[in-house]
Amino acid sequence: MRFLRRHAAVYVGAVIALVTLSPLILLATDAQAAGWGEIHRVLFRSRSAMLLRHTVVLAVLVAVLSAAVGVAAAWATERTRLPLRWLWTVLLVLPLAMPDFVVGWAWHLIDPRINPLGGATLVMVLGTYPLVYLPVAAALRRSDPVLEDTAHGLGVGRLATFWRVSLPQLTPALFGGTVLVVLTVISEYGAFEILRYPTFTTEVFTEFQFEPEAAGALSMPLVLLGLLVLGADGLLSRRDGGMATGVRRPPEPPRWRPAAVPAMLALLGLAGLGVGVPVGTLVYWIRQSRATTLPPVATLGQATWSTLEYSAGGALLAVVLATPVALMTLRRHTRTRDVLERSTFVTQAVPGVVIALSLVYFATRFAYSVYQTSTLLVVAYALLFFPLALVCVRASCAQAPPELADVGVSLGRHPVTVFFRVTVPLIAPGLVAGFCLVFLTAITELTATLVLAPIGVETLATQFWAYQSEVANGAAAPYALVIVAMAVLPGTLLGLWFDRESRTPRRPKPVSA
Amino acid sequence: MTRRTAVTHRRVTTLGMSVLAAVLVGSLAACGGSAKGSTATGSGSSLRGQTIVLYSAQHPQTTDAMVAAFEQQTGIHVRIDANDEDVLTAQLEKEGSRSPADVFYTENSNWLQQLADRGMLAKVDSGTLAQVPKADSAADGDWVGVSARISAMIYNPKKISEAQLPKSIMDMADPRYKGKIEIAPAETDFWPIVASVDRAKGSAATLAWLKGLRANAGSNDNVPDNETLTSDVSQGITDFAVINHYYYYRLKAVVSGGTGNAKLAYFAPHDPGFVKAISGAAVLKSSKHQAAAQELLNFMTSKSGQEVLEAGESFEYPVKPGIPANPALPPISSYEPNAFSPADLGTGLQAKDLLQRAGLI
C-alpha cells in the first residue's frame, strides 16, 4: 500500500503518457492491417521522394529563418532599452493566434501566382517565429547581462559578444523553439494546400479521402521524421547552456531615443506582415461581393458556438491531463519519470490528421457510440495539444515550492485537500496559460477538425474551408475573421502572462542545496 | 467537387444537444428501430415524419433544392452529411453495416459502383429505374442515374484564342502547351476523363499522356479542385483547363456581367476527352428506412425532382427524357461526346491507378 502510494504519481503519469501515445499504437495497427504490399506500393515511389524533399527543404528553410527572426526579436525586447516593451511582446506573440491556413489564403489572394516554396516559407516563418521568440526571450531574461557587460569591458565587440557569450547561453532555448518550428512545418496542411506546395501531410490528407489504408502507411515517414527531430532535441538539450543564476543585474529602464526607431519599425513590420496583412485582406474580401451559388448554411453564430464549445472542452481536458504529469517530475527526477514526461511530447511530432485518423480507426472498431460525436473531437484536441498544456503547467510548477505541499500534509490535511488548497492556487497562472494556449490552438486547428467534426456540425474552420474550397472568398472571409478575433484575446493574455512570468524573480535556491 | 466541401444543412439537432452527441446517436438508433416495423412499400403517408440520412457528395447547389422539394412533397425529413465522394465512400466502408446513412448521392458513378461491388447497396425500385434511360444507371440496378455533366475546356481569351486550343484532349500533353495549363488530379471529376482516355487509347498511352500533362502544368499540377481551375482561368493565372460544363455556368451566375474573362470550349466530337459522366444515387443495404430511402430516389428521378435541376443553380442536365435543362445551357442533344458509359467507368480504380503511376496523386 505504502509502495503504491509512493509511486502513485508515476502510475498516473504512465497511464496518461500511454493515452497520449495511443494514437501511434493505433496507427501502427492500422498500417499493418493495410498490409505490407499496400505500404510498399504507396510509400516507395518517386512521388514519395518528391514529397520528402519538399517537406525537408521547407522545414530547414523555415527553421533557419524563424530562428534568426525569433532571436533578433528577443534581443530587441530583452537587451535593448526599447520603450513599450509589453506592447512589443504582445505583438510578437500574436501571430500564434493567426491560423496558418488563413495567412496562407490571404497571401494567395494577394498574389495567386506566388511561388509555392516562397509563399510557404513566408507564411510559416511569419507564423512560427514566436515559437523561437518565446523561449529565447525567456532565456535572455533569466541570464545575467553582466556577463555581456564584462565581455564588452574586456574589449570584445558587440557582434563577437553575441556569438561568444550570449548565443551559447541561448542554445537550449533556441534549439527547443526551433524543434517546435520544424514540427509545426511538417504537420501543416491548410496553408500548403492553398499555396500548392505538396508535402507529406497534404498527401496524407488527400490520400485519406480516397484510400484510408494508404494514409496510415504514408503517415509513417511523418512520425519518423517527428521522432527524429525530437530525438535530436533530446540529445542536444542535455547539454546545459550553463545559465548564469543567482542575483541578476536589473534591466535598464526603457528610454525613448532615435536609435530605437529602426528596431521599433522592424518589429512593427513583422507584426504587420504576420497579422496586419492577413486581417486587412479578410476585411477587403468581406467588403467585396459575397455572391456565390452556394446556399447559405451554417451561420456564423452557430459555427462560432461549436468552435468555442469544442476548443474549450479540449483545452480543459488537456490541462487536466497535463497537471499530474507536470507534478510528477516536479517532486523527483528519476529516469522513469523523465522518460515518461518526454514521451508525451511525441504527439507534438505527429500531424493532426494522423491523430484524427487513429481516432477514427479506434472509434469505428471499438467505440462506435462515440464515432462522429463531439467527444471524439474534444479528445483529439486534448491529445494533440497536450504538450502545449504541459509546457505551461510545468513552468508554473517549477515556481511552486513542493515544500509548501509537504507542510500542508504534515499539518494533518489530506493530500487531496492540500492539492486543491495549496498546489492548485500556486500553479493557477500556468493552468490558465495552458488553457489559453490549447484553446487558441484548437480554434485555429483545421485538419483534425475536418476529419472528426460530427455530422451536421460546422466549426468556423470547417465552414471557412468549405467556402474557400469553392473559391467563395467573400463568403469565407467572415469565418476567418471570427477565428482570428476569437484567438486574439487568449493570445494577448498569453503574451501578457509571458511578459509577467519571466519578469517575476525565480524562487531563490535553498542555500544548503 | 472540392476536397471536402463540408457544407451541411438542416440540422435536426439543436446546438445544445451537440454536446450530448452520444445521446443523439442513441436516440437516432432508437428512432430507426421504431420505424422499422412501419416500413412496408413506398406509400407516402406512412413515411411522413420519418427522418433519413443522406450522405451527399453532390454540390449543395443541387442537393439543397432537391431535398427541400422532396421534404415538402413527402413530409419525410432528410438530414444531410455533405462531403467529397471519396471521403464519404471511405467513411461508408469504415462504418459498414452500422452506418447511419440511408441514401448515398455522388457526383460520379464510380463510387457507387465501388460500394455495389462490395455488396453494400440495396437494389433500386424498378419503378424508379424505369424513369431514366437504362444506360444512365447501373446495369444490375444497384444505383440510379440522376443528372449528367459534360467535360469541357475553360479558357481565357486574353491569353489563348479558341483556335489555339487543342482539338483532342491528347494534345494537351503536347509541349506547345507547356506552362499554359493547370490540372486538378485529386478532383474526382477528372477520373472519368482519365478512364475514358484509357478505354480509347490503352493504359501505356494514357500514362504517357498524364506525364505530359504533368510536365505542362509544372508547379500547377496539384490544383485542389475544378472550382479553383475555373477561378484561375478567369483571373488569367493560367490559359486553359479541363472542367465540367456547370462550373463555367455557375461562375457566370455569380459574376455579374458575364464570366470575367473565361469562355467555354469543347473537344472535337467523340474525342476521348469529350465525356458525359453520370451523377447517381443509391440506397444503402444497411438502411433501416428502406421505404423512405427508396422514396427519395424515386423523387429525384421523377418529373418534379428532375425539374429542380432545370430551375436551380445546379446547371447539371436532367437525365429523365423530356425534362428541359436550365435555359442558360445548350440542349444536351447538341453535344457529341464519345461513347463512354458508367459501365465503362466501373469503379474508377484503373483511373486512380494510372494517376498514381503518373505520380499525380
UniProtKB/TrEMBL annotation, chain A:
Keywords: Cell inner membrane, Cell membrane, Membrane, Transmembrane, Transmembrane helix, Transport
InterPro entries per record: MetI-like (IPR000515), MetI-like_sf (IPR035906)
Primary location recorded for the protein, binned into one broad class: membrane
GO biological processes: transmembrane transport
One cellular component term from this protein's GO annotations in UniProt: plasma membrane
Pfam families reported in the protein's UniProt record: BPD_transp_1 (PF00528)
Domain of life: Bacteria
Protein topology in the membrane: Multi-pass membrane protein
ABC transmembrane type-1 domain: residues covered: 52-236, 304-494
Subcellular location: Cell inner membrane; Cell membrane
TM segment ranges: 57-75, 87-107, 119-140, 215-237, 258-286, 310-330, 342-363, 375-397, 418-443, 476-498
PANTHER family linked: FE(3+)-TRANSPORT SYSTEM PERMEASE PROTEIN FBPB 2, INNER MEMBRANE ABC TRANSPORTER PERMEASE PROTEIN YDCV
Family: Belongs to the binding-protein-dependent transport system permease family.
Designated name of the protein: Iron ABC transporter permease
Lineage of producing organism: Bacteria, Bacillati, Actinomycetota, Actinomycetes, Micrococcales
From TrEMBL, chain B:
Gene3D superfamilies in the record: Periplasmic binding protein-like II (3.40.190.10)
One Gene Ontology MF term: metal ion binding
UniProt keyword annotations, A-Z: Ion transport, Iron, Iron transport, Metal-binding, Signal, Transport
Residues binding Fe cation, per UniProt: H59, E107, Y246, Y247
GO cellular component, one term: outer membrane-bounded periplasmic space
GO term, biological process aspect, one: iron ion transport
PROSITE patterns according to UniProt: PROKAR_LIPOPROTEIN (PS51257), SBP_BACTERIAL_1 (PS01037)
Signal peptide: 1-32
InterPro entries on file: Ferric-bd, SBP_1_CS
SUPFAM superfamilies tied to this protein: Periplasmic binding protein-like II
Pfam families: SBP_bac_6
Family label: Belongs to the bacterial solute-binding protein 1 family.
Protein name in the entry: Extracellular solute-binding protein
Organism: Flexivirga caeni
